[in-house]
Amino acid sequence: MRLLLVEDNLRLCEYVGEALRARGFAVDAVECGSDGEAAIATTAYDAIILDLGLPDMDGLAWLTAMRKSVNQVPVLILTARDGVDDLVTGLNAGADDYLRKPFELEELVARIRAVLRRPGHVLGSQLTHGNVSLNTHTRELTVNARPVELGRRECGALELLLRRADRVVSKSAIEEAIYAFGEELASNAIEVLIHRLRRRMQQADADIQIHTLRGVGYMLAPVSENRDAVGE
Ligand code: CA
Hints:
The protein folds into two domains: 2-116, Rossmann fold; 126-230, Winged helix-like DNA-binding domain superfamily/Winged helix DNA-binding domain (Arc Repressor Mutant, subunit A), CATH 1.10.10.10. Helices cover 39% and strands 22% of the residues. The chain has eight helices and eleven strands. Strand 4, helix 4 (84-92) and strand 5 (97-100) form a beta-alpha-beta unit. Helix 6 packs across helix 7. The two termini are 36 Å apart. The site of calcium ion (CA) has 5 residues, from loops.
């Protein structure tokens, strides 16, 4: 399980990071919101531990923006703030749980394990649908248990589709999930990318495919269904 720890108190950050690593978690620690943003843009974390008082931004604002971009990674808030209002706002903004500082390390570990177990999130590093399986840690894709090479962006798009399998994923959600802020993007970039990804899956004999719902988005579904909805 890979965790992102966003905490500007260096001592606390090191202490918590070390303790979590000792318990078998892979932990990336950053000290400000912008580094956190950069981290989640490139890495699929299983959970985020988020301090609310960050030097460059408010943790709540960051969380709200993250949820808008359909990132549903579990988030546990750490806060030194006493008020109930902040916690309610945090939970409304999409946090899964919170801990007030100072806290006991064992309680933090227990709460992280609890959010990782919680239904509603598609958890685990292995996302599987039909004969298609993607390891979100190693970015290895297998179809029919055979490895398939995929580019970073195709991989990101497929991960999003797998996480929301059988639901429609909008073009803009895919854009936001795989392109960093400010990155140049051709108007047909997503169509081209989906076309490539669809072809790779067909070549590999996947039993699910990407359906296009014109003007709405994309959706993974078994090959036999909705053939007439398939477009390029
Ligand atoms: Ca802080």
